[in-house]
Specification:
Elements: H1 35-40, E1 47-52, H2 59-66, H3 69-72, E2 76-81, H4 85-94, E3 99-103, H5 105-112, E4 120-129, E5 131-136, H6 137-146, H7 162-173, E6 180-183, H8 189-200, E7 223-226, H9 229-237, E8 243-247, H10 250-258, E9 261-266, E10 275-282, H11 283-288, H12 290-307, H13 311-322, H14 331-338, E11 341-346, E12 352-356, E13 361-362, H15 373-385, H16 395-405, H17 408-420, H18 453-457
Parallel strand pairs: 1-2, 1-3, 6-7, 6-8
Antiparallel strand pairs: 3-10, 4-10, 4-13, 5-8, 5-9, 11-12
Helix pairs in contact: 2-12, 5-16, 6-7, 9-10, 10-14, 12-17, 13-14, 15-16
Length: 465
């Protein structure tokens, strides 16, 4: 199967009326495997099982299966929905699944021994951006009392956490319980982004005291707790959750369907280009099955290109993911973020505050599929900042860990083979493994140079040095 790539810029043409489109029911079908390809390319393992969590950003794995990219490479993939990120981590390490949709920090946490110690490799980056921080209606009302612009329609992004600093102080002075906030996994992108946003507003989210500490609440102004996304939404509805950070469709579920909260800030306004999800395998699997790994990576790259190719494909994503075998939510809810829009709440006239956000989900453009070690260094700095890395490390150490996890050689080989086959463009292969990130892409205005992680860490007002 072959798709002609159209300019990714076409996504920018999506307007706020995109969600009004109609959707069709999608039924997953079995692809016809190219057995000759498997023989010619000496695929070591043709039957594979991959894991996924019910989040829209799992789509490259699903698209590679449903659109026949895996089958074209001579492999048959079964996708299994996993109950939570801990199960994903444990089942990949144990070998129950061959590869999986993962939080960006999962393989890095495994590399340093935060949680389960293991050698995992990322041959393909699934997405950048794509997370949201949602607050309860009560907390939003309190924030608007501190910052009146939030009570008006059309308030601008970014929404900073500064009001929460005052709210947390008021609660403490009154002897009330601390604000309760949820994220999905300690060594995960949701935890990192929530902490980054809070700290940029002067709120201390708490420190981890050792590699064995799974709570990270020392000196905290608010309490962050691990919870699966469906339970986050339920807890917010019951009044037991003040805020959470997660991927879609859960922010839109609460904002549009449940109406118990609203998305306060999408992650591109915290760090535009922030790492979110990866596709990971064990190092042992990639070494035992190099041809299979190569084939999988080729298929995933093609799927990522397809996802960012056109508005029509984004529309199709919502239909595919709506199938009960995958996410099973309404395509209208799934379609908000993947089609390039987000609903930020309800306006005073009762209409939806829907805005174009074409950079919310990025699957290929801006080097999104490349397992860039520089982004891994950034994630490691946040681990150190919050105590998940208990002792100070040298700049060289950050690079060493990043390169152990980042499967750049696997990715480059796969991409170059796609170029040779006329299925990819050579200019789309990123040339820099360690690009700098300017101050303007971060909510706190602190630039990041992956060559100088310790210098970067010294600039934060809140964080271990």
């Amino acid at each position: 199967m072959r798709f002609l790539l159209r300019p990714v810029a076409a996504l920018l043409a999506i307007t706020a009326t995109a969600s009004a489109a109609t959707y069709e029911e999608y039924t997953p079908t079995a692809s016809v495997i190219n057995f000759q390809k498997a023989i010619d390319n000496k695929i070591e393992k043709t039957e594979l099982t991959f894991g996924m969590i019910k989040l829209t950003d799992c789509i490259p794995i699903i698209a590679a299966k449903e659109l026949g990219f895996f089958a074209a490479e001579g492999i048959n993939v079964k996708v299994q929905v996993q109950p939570n990120w801990k199960a994903v981590n444990d089942r990949l390490i144990s070998g129950e699944i061959d590869g999986t949709h993962m939080l960006y920090g999962h393989p890095l946490g495994a590399a340093i021994g935060f949680g389960a110690k293991a050698e995992l490799v990322v041959p393909y980056n699934i997405s950048i951006n794509g997370m949201g921080i949602t607050v309860s209606n009560t907390l939003w009302k309190d924030m608007a009392a501190k910052e009146p612009r939030l009570a008006e329609d059309g308030y601008a992004q970014p929404v900073k956490a500064d009001p929460i600093k005052a709210i947390a102080a008021d609660r403490k002075a009154a002897g009330k319980p601390a604000l309760q906030m949820f994220m999905t996994f300690p060594a995960g992108s949701h935890n990192i982004n929530l902490r980054y946003w809070l700290a940029a507003g002067g709120v201390n989210p708490g420190f981890y005291e050792s590699l064995a500490d799974a709570k990270g609440v020392k000196d905290s102004d608010v309490v962050l707790t691990v919870n699966p996304p469906p339970q986050m939404a339920q807890a917010m509805g019951q009044g037991n959750c003040d805020a959470f950070c997660v991927g879609e469709p859960w922010n839109m579920q609460v904002t549009i369907k449940d109406k118990t909260g609203r998305i306060a800030i999408p992650s591109q306004y915290i760090f535009n280009g922030s790492p979110d999800k990866v596709f990971a395998m064990t190092k042992a699997f990639t070494e035992k099955n190099p041809n299979t790994t190569h084939a999988v990576t080729r298929a995933l790259i093609r799927a990522g290109m397809w996802c960012d190719e056109s508005p029509e494909n984004r529309h199709k994503i919502a239909e595919i993911l709506a199938a009960k075998e995958y996410i099973g939510a309404k395509p209208e809810i799934l379609g908000e973020s993947v089609s390039g829009t987000l609903v930020f709440g309800i306006k005073k006239d009762g209409s939806l505050d829907r805005r174009p956000e074409p950079d919310f989900n990025i699957f290929f453009k801006k080097g999104a599929t490349y397992p860039q070690p520089g982004r891994m260094v950034w994630a490691l700095t946040q681990f150190r900042r919050w105590g998940m890395i208990p002792e100070a490390k040298s700049d060289a150490w950050y690079k060493e860990v990043a390169e152990k996890v980042s499967g750049t050689a696997i990715y480059k080989k796969a991409f170059e083979s796609l170029v040779a086959d006329g299925l990819a463009k050579a200019e789309d292969l990123p040339k820099d493994d360690y690009p700098t990130y300017p101050a303007e892409v971060f909510i706190d205005g602190i630039a990041f140079d992956p060559a100088k992680p310790n210098d970067y860490l010294s600039k934060f007002a809140i964080g271990l040095k």
